[in-house]
Amino acid sequence: MRDTQTQSRKAPPKAAAKKRNGAAASDEIVAVLREFSVGQYGRRLDLSAFEGGPLADVARAVNASADHVEAEIAEARQRIEVVSAGVDEAIEAMVKLVIQGDLTGGLRIGVADSALAPLIAGVGQVMETLKKFVTEIREAALQLSTSSSEVLAAATQNESSTSAQASAIHETTATMEELKGASHQIAENAQMVASIAEQTLSGGRQGEGAIKAFMLSMEKVRHNAIEVDDAIAKLSKRVERIGTVVEVIDEIADRSDLLALNAALEGAKAGETGRGFSIVAAEMRRLAENVMESTKEIKNLITEIREATHAAKEASDGNKREASEGEKLGSNAMQNVSGILAGIQETSDAARVIHLATQQQRTATEQVVQSMSEIEEVTRQAQAGSKQATGAAAELTKLAERLAELVRRFRVD
Amino acid sequence: MTEASSEILMFQVGVRVFAAVVHDAVRIGSVAASPPDDLVCESALGTPFEQTRGIVVSGDEPGTERVLVVDQVIGIRSVPDVDVHPLPAFAAACLSSGAVSGFVLVDEVPMLLVDLPTLVRERPGVPAHEATP
Asked: Which residue of A8, A81, B13, B70 has the smallest Cβ count within 10 Å?
């Protein structure tokens, strides 16, 4: 611009100015003014060319105006340079403050210009605001650090809890799977127990019938034993009667033997004459001995019969006792079997109920297993999310620490 | 020619069989039917087991009888006299009882021949001539 002004201040040649007059002078002034209008103040009018003319004062005024404008422009330029220097100094000082982080003091610049007062005031407000921000950011960073640490701890705890929960759910699912298998086995066993109870019930009823038949048999045995007892008593009386008769016969035979002996003795004493008598006596004695031998055999037989009847009586009494005992045992067995049948019936009913319940349990267990699988999947997702949250919390903690570290660089106190 | 023979009464006391001359016995009786005072249960022959029969022998006094209690009267046999042997004097002297008069072979089996009246007079272990007052 100065080059332009220097160029434009060059005076026009005197010969050319002398040639101007009237309209030419006006044109000259218009041209200069047109240059002024586009901010070119370097050109001046040649006053000598207007000497004596009506436009000489205008030309002087134009030149004076141009000089004045140029002076104003120079002054403005100088002021702009001062203000620019102040602004640069302020910006540089502020940048230094920001870089150094020292916000404790105010902005001090060497340029004293009233135009910089709003800037200084604005920068001061900015500094105050920045101090306030830094203070708040510091507090917020501190709270953020604390909170992020708490969040990290909570997230870590949550991750641990979620892992433990996932492990527990996994174990629970495995246990429920085993329970499902056990329920299935229990249902089958209950079915088997119910079947066996039915078979046992059928067998027990057959046993009940057998015991009834046994009791009838025992009653018949007891009646038969009584009849046998009566028959034995009659037989014993008959045998006793036979024994008495045999005793009589034996006595007669003994006397006959004795008589025969004495006859033989007398025959022997008589010598030859008594020989025939002795022979008859000997024959009689043989008969008597035969009779006694027979009666002895009969006595032996009677003794055997007595022993046999006694044994039969004992056996019959034993049969009666055993039959009575058998009837009592049968009655007891009947009561026991009735109790057993009732118990088996209850067992059968209970086994059926258990079978039904275990089937329901199995269904419920399967549903629980299904639910546990879904819960396990959800927990697995929650575990992954918890890990992500823990990572994010850790990252947040680092960021909070970084922010606190950055904010610590600013001193506001 | 008929061989001379003797009629002997065979009886059993305990497990032994003895012989006596038939004339020594008055009769054969029943122990149960005999008076208890007349019974001779223990003798030099021993003590009978069953005591069913009694051989009635004449007592010391006329009209009295003693009954030798035996187990069994086997019977009366006729044996040749050659089979009847009296007891040698030395043997008789060695015996404490004087009721043994010899021995007799019956079916080639020797058995003692007993003098029944002497036997019933003896007390057990005491000879008859000492027992008699």
From this structure: A81
Q: Using an 8 Å CB-CB cutoff, list chain A residues near B50.
A: none
Comparing CB atoms, the residue among B22, B28, B73 nearest residue A269 is B22
Contact B23/A at CB under 8 A: yes
* Alpha-carbon gap, residue A293 to A192, rounded angstroms: 77
Please answer whether residues B99 and B114 qualify as being in contact, where contact means their C-beta atoms are separated by less than 8 angstroms.
Answer: yes
CB-based contact A186:A353 (threshold 8 Å): no
The answer to ipTM > 0.90 is: no
The residue assigned the tokens 């057993």 is A340
User: pLDDT per residue over A86-124, tens digit each?
Assistant: 888 878 877 777 777 777 776 677 767 777 788 778 877
Q: What length does chain B have?
A: 133
Structure tokens at A401: 């620490």
Residues 244-303 of A with CB under 8 A from B: 254, 258, 261-262, 264-265, 267-269, 271, 278, 282, 285
At A234, is the secondary structure helix, strand, or coil? helix
Nearest residue in B to A254, CA atom:
B30
pLDDT digits (tens, 9 = 90+) for A242-253: 889 989 998 898
Residue A112 CA to residue A90 CA, distance in Å, equals: 11
pTM: 0.47
Question: In Å, how far are A125, A240, A242, A244, B107 from A302, measured between CA atoms?
Answer: 154, 8, 8, 10, 37
The amino acid at residue A65 is S
Å between B128 CA and nearest CA of chain A: 26
Q: What gap in Å lies between CA A104 and CA B122, rounded to an integer?
A: 172
Q: And the tokens for A7?
A: 């160029």
A195: left (phi over 0), alpha (psi -120 to 50) or beta: alpha
Specify whether the backbone of A245 is left (phi greater than 0), alpha (psi in -120 to 50) or beta.
alpha
